[in-house]
Amino acid sequence: MKYMMILNSDEQIESSATPNEEDLNAMGRYNEELIKAGVLLAGEGLHPSSEGARIEYSGDERTVIDGPFTETKELIAGFWIIQAANKAEALEWARRIPLTSGRVEVRQVFDLSEFPQDNEYVQKEAQWREELGESRTA
User: Fold this and answer.
1) Distance between CA 40 and CA 82 in Å, rounded?
2) Per the confidence metrics, is the pTM higher than 0.90?
3) Is 85 helix (H, G, I), strand (E, B) or coil?
4) What are the φ and ψ backbone dihedral angles of 24, each rounded to 5 degrees?
5) What distance in Å separates the CA atoms of residue 128 and residue 126, rounded to the nearest whole number?
6) Where are the alpha helices (DSSP H) in the chain?
7) pLDDT per residue over 83-118, tens digit each?
8) Measured between alpha carbons, how far is residue 32 from residues 18, 89, 91, 97 in Å?
9) Can you tell me whether residue 108 is helix, strand or coil?
10) How many other CB atoms are found less than 10 A from the CB of residue 120?
11) Range name among 7-11, 15-19, 80-84, 133-137 with the lowest pLDDT average
């Protein structure tokens, strides 16, 4: 099963474009553990919300709102996607993230088999994944 570990942002992360060397090394060692265990599928850090934007949808209307966003507890600072046998294993990997503060949310990623297999777009997605490799997702 695939799980996403979502690193929530905080004021410290939002105020700094890049982590300090100590934090960067600690995270690098953690990522190396994930790689050596064969569970890491993807992982990235995100720039602060001051460099981003949101799009709000209301019917056919689209409104672009430039960052920064003040409610940092709802922001994402980065993520990992891992392959784990179950939720308990995913939570164990999340517990090992080298953070001294903050919050990480762990959520299972939908598998293509969980959708109606007679749906045209589910079938197209299955074909696309077969052609390009399972790790590719739409």
Assistant:
1) 5
2) no
3) coil
4) -60, -45
5) 5
6) 11-15, 21-37, 87-95, 120-132
7) 999 999 999 999 999 998 889 999 999 998 899 999
8) 19, 17, 18, 12
9) strand
10) 7
11) 133-137
